[in-house]
UniProtKB/TrEMBL annotation:
Residues 215-225, 271-281, 764-776 have a biased composition (Basic and acidic residues). This is Dynamin. Residues 1-31, 50-156, 169-310, 752-776 are annotated as: Disordered. Residues 349-380 form the EH domain.
């Protein structure tokens, strides 16, 4: 305004007359004194409609000095600077609305119904003898006027004195400082109680007052807008503007206090115990969920890992599980002896890997070709049991049943609806503990999952429990496969992550529901990843007791016919038809068949545990074969390259020509003919195109150039490891295991005989048997 380069909202001298605004009688310099100036700040907006009367950049509702005279509102006798003292001013805040119609008399942004100081004089309502600041004390307010100045006449006001307590709950209804019990005019209308018939007296006021309270509250909610988004709070689905809908918000009013601890859930200034609409949704408490949350509909968040279900009255016996999985105390000595032998063999596997496999793996950069790695985590980890299949097939229920973790606070969530899309990993721990993806990725066994990115880590959930079975195995549940027509993009390579678990699994169970036998693209892709693992794959037709016996055979046949063509095996897959959970079988179900199938499933699972060393050796040999094939493939490309390279030729162009068109140089056919390598074990040419773009072909050495006089040829060591060293470890393990078990049996027999002559005879017999076995 004064051309000094300082915007009006920041200018301490608005009109540039050298007199500070706070003491300037003519703020805008128009020659009209502030007290009679209809536009005090000279912005062209009349005071009665100006949201910033003094032009200081602070809205009136937030301005502690509305008229800019340097006197705070609560000390200012003329709050709006119009020259009329507040007690004589029909418009205290200068907003153009008369006080008896103004829902915010002092212009502080708080509706009168929730304002603790309605007239803004610095005196709280309960201590103010003139609540509405009109110059009349509360006792002098005429009949049918408005003591608290909230725009609701006293006769119709459920809170006459505006202290936020309903009349029927207010110990001083009219706010005159005299308790109702001794006040001769309880409602402050000037009519003594005995002659007053306006239903404000204790005998008759309850029903009508409550009805008026509901109406007043509804009006107040309609006028309030907590987050300032222009949507009244009673219509606003996100009242505090934090992006969380009220029904899912643990803190509806955004005051930092959870709803269950908040004395005023909806932040309307009315304590919960006096609030007829606690959550501020415009519905009375008796008509809705009064805390605003859907906890009486959904007790847990949608992506919660754990679920506590209803405990059935009867449950099936678990004795056969402990017996067949050898989880009883009698098996501890044998398990310990076998574990000692296993440690020796695992160290031999590691030695073979370090000496024979790793040199060529590093030299020919096999890790840049494939995600199928091999190292200490794969060698020394526990056996891995993998459950996968369509959604709601019963995978989580089976895991809960096997681990005796049904109906506990830490049970995996199960139900008819699809469970949360997490990779659930169960491990042994001294105490029950839920782990997130970051903790799992830092674990020694699952550290290889870090290469799939943060997207996968966010979908990992771990559960440590002190359960006997988890001392022997780790159990993994892959998210249920949901067949959709439109391909859904994921934040991580889902199939590659599944392949990582498949490569490390000792036994794989595909779980199906009799009502969901369809096979779509997602299932087909997963089954294709099981190529080469058919011998480790089993199918469980779960929930078989829900199907009539005469239909069960047809359902099982349909399942085999659907899946068999998609698996790379001439033999049909092994199917277990059972119902794996603790509930009793349904009436009419073939109980003997289901129990027999369950026992066969448990024996199969135990066999996988017993063969963990054989599986480790087989995994090491498979990896060694892949490394050998890769090394020979690179060597074949190199020989072709050197055969076609000329003295002055462009080596990059020659290499690219060979890489882009390997069929023209018969690389794959020649490698299959000259060596004992199957074409079906070799990666596709597209894989090698990507590999050689990352690692130029001419930077590798030919296999013949890797040999030395003292160390020999790495490829020869690798061939010897594949053909002799690794297979010999299987025989070594069996011999050592038999010896260890014989020693345990000898000790048990000696203990049973009490250490006497009988015990000595048994010991001699056991020793003779052992010598006989050794000779044979």
């Amino acid at each position: 305004m004064d051309g000094d380069g300082v915007a009006n909202v920041h200018d301490a001298d608005l009109d540039g007359d050298g007199v500070a605004n706070v003491v300037d009688p003519d703020l805008d310099g128009d020659g009209v004194e502030n007290v009679i100036d209809a536009d005090m700040d000279g912005d062209g907006v009349a005071n009665v409609v100006d949201g910033d009367i003094d032009g200081d950049g602070v809205r009136n509702v937030s301005d502690n000095d509305i008229d800019g005279d340097g006197i705070p509102n609560d000390e200012d006798d003329d709050m709006d600077g119009d020259g009329i003292p507040n007690h004589k001013d029909y418009d205290v805040d200068g907003d153009g609305i008369p006080a008896h119609e103004d829902s915010d008399i002092d212009g502080d942004g708080k509706p009168n119904t929730v304002d603790e100081d309605i007239d803004g004089d610095g005196i709280a309502n309960e201590k103010d003898h003139d609540i509405d600041g009109d110059g009349l004390t509360n006792d002098e307010e005429p009949v049918s006027l408005d003591i608290d100045g909230d725009g609701i006449l006293n006769d119709d006001d459920s809170d006459i004195d505006g202290d936020i307590l309903l009349n029927e709950m207010d110990a001083d209804m009219d706010g005159d400082g005299i308790p109702n019990t001794v006040d001769k005019d309880i409602d402050g209308d000037g009519i003594p109680n005995p002659h007053d018939e306006d239903d404000h007296e204790p005998a008759a006021m309850q029903v009508k007052a409550i009805k008026r309270a509901k109406r007043d509250l509804t009006e107040a909610v309609k006028q309030s807008d907590m987050d300032g988004d222009g949507i009244p709070d009673d219509l606003d689905e996100d009242k505090d503007g934090d992006g969380v809908p009220n029904q899912q918000d643990d803190d509806i009013d955004g005051d930092g206090i959870p709803n269950y601890q908040d004395d005023d859930i909806d932040g309307d200034g009315v304590p919960n115990e006096h609030d007829v609409d606690r959550d501020g949704d415009g519905l009375l408490n008796e008509e809705d969920d009064s805390d605003g949350e859907l906890d009486d509909i959904e007790t847990r968040p949608e992506d919660e890992l754990l679920w506590e279900g209803e405990i059935p009255a009867q449950r099936r016996s678990r004795d056969h599980i402990n017996e067949l999985l050898q989880l009883d105390e009698q098996s501890n000595a044998r398990e310990k002896a076998i574990d000692n032998v296993a440690e020796v063999i695992l160290r031999d596997i590691k030695r073979t890997y370090e000496n024979a496999i790793k040199p060529l793996e590093v030299m020919y950069k096999y890790r840049d070709l494939s995600n199928r790695h091999f190292g200490d985590p794969e060698i020394f980890s526990k056996p891995l049991v993998l459950f996968m299949g369509p959604w709601s097939g019963g995978k989580s229920s089976i895991i809960n049943y096997l681990t005796d973790n049904e109906y506990t606070p830490h049970s995996l969530r199960s139900g008819a609806e699809p469970s949360p899309a997490y990779f659930n990993i169960l491990m042994w721990g001294n105490e029950t503990e839920v782990l997130d993806g970051t903790q799992l990725a830092a674990d020694y066994t699952f550290s290889g999952l870090q290469k799939f990115g943060q997207g996968l880590e966010d979908r990992l959930r771990g559960l440590k429990m002190p359960i006997k079975l988890l001392e022997k195995v780790n159990i993994v549940e892959i998210p249920g496969i949901l067949e959709v027509r439109k391909q859904v993009s994921r934040l991580f390579p889902f199939n590659d992550a599944c392949q990582w678990f498949i490569d490390r699994a000792d036994i794989i169970f595909l779980v199906y529901d009799p009502a969901k036998l369809d096979v779509g693209p997602e299932t087909e892709a997963i089954l294709d990843q099981l190529k080469g693992r058919e011998y480790q794959t089993r199918i469980i037709l779960n929930k078989a007791d829900t199907v009539k016996p005469e239909e069960l055979l047809r359902v099982q046949s349909a399942l085999i016919w659907n899946i068999s063509p998609l698996m790379s095996s001439a033999q049909p897959p092994l199917v277990y038809t059972t119902s794996l959970w603790g509930r009793p079988y349904q009436d009419g179900a073939p109980a003997r068949l289901l129990l027999a199938q369950e026992r066969a499933f448990l024996r199969d699972l135990r066999t996988a545990v017993d063969k963990r060393i054989e599986n480790k050796i087989a995994s090491a040999r498979r990896f060694a074969v892949r490394v050998r094939n890769h090394a020979k493939m690179v060597d074949c490309y190199l020989n072709t390259y050197y055969n076609h390279k000329s003295l002055f030729g462009n080596k990059k162009r020659i290499a690219d020509t060979i890489i882009e068109n390997p069929q023209n140089y018969h690389i794959y056919e020649g490698l299959s003919t000259l060596t004992n390598i199957s074409r079906y074990d070799l990666p596709d040419p597209e894989v090698y195109r990507d590999f050689f773009r990352l690692n130029p072909l001419y930077e590798f050495k030919k296999l013949s150039e890797t040999c030395s006089y003292f160390r020999g040829c790495p490829i020869t060591k690798l061939d010897v490891a594949i053909a002799y060293d690794l297979p010999d470890l299987v025989g070594k393990y069996k011999r050592m295991a038999e010896t260890a078990l014989a020693t345990v049996e000898q000790k048990e027999a000696a203990n049973a005989a009490g250490g006497g002559a009988g015990g000595a005879a048994v010991a001699d017999k056991s020793e003779a048997d052992k010598n006989k076995k050794t000779k044979s």
